[in-house]
């Protein structure tokens, strides 16, 4: 009987750990207008919060292959820093089946938005808010 209870408890803990960890990993950010892959963002956990860093970019032939965030606010610590390696998702906290409370930076325009992340059908939904307006992107897990 004790073995059965221990097995059930371990199974439950494994399910909980795996459910939280599904958002962690590498995701392809996709341009919602062109459908092209723009970057690979690695989502990690530090303490109780979630962060995302650009680990690869896919610039168009006419774009700078190693861009910096010239459009970022001068008060932002990412201003004039390389986009490759830049932390664009910060301070996200788990809230039921989604992550909220943090921010996401769009380095192409230099704007920071309130953010919400959630998993839906194996994809990552990334929503940025500016006031009452929002835009949602669908990111694909890197195979």
Give the secondary structure arrangement, pairings included.
Layout: H1 2-21, E1 25-30, E2 37-46, E3 49-57, E4 87-95, E5 98-106, E6 111-120, E7 123-130, E8 133-141
Antiparallel strand pairs: 1-2, 1-8, 2-3, 3-4, 4-5, 5-6, 6-7, 7-8
- Unreliable stretches: 3-20
Give the second-level CATH assignment, the architecture. Beta Barrel
Distance between the termini: 41 Å
Structural class call reads mainly beta
**Structural domains: how many:** 1
Q: Helical segment tally?
A: 1
* Strands side by side in the biggest sheet: 1-2-3-4-5-6-7-8
In which range does the helix fraction lie? 10-25%
For the residues shown, what is the average pLDDT?
Answer: 87
Please give the radius of gyration in angstroms: 17 Å
Task: Give a quick account of the main beta sheet: strands, pairing sense, barrel closure.
Answer: 8 strands, antiparallel, barrel
For the secondary structure, the number of strands is: 8
Quaternary assembly? single chain
Instruction: From the 3D structure, determine the CATH topology.
Output: Lipocalin
Taken from the alpha-carbon principal axes, the silhouette is globular
CATH class: Mainly Beta
β content, as a range? over 45%
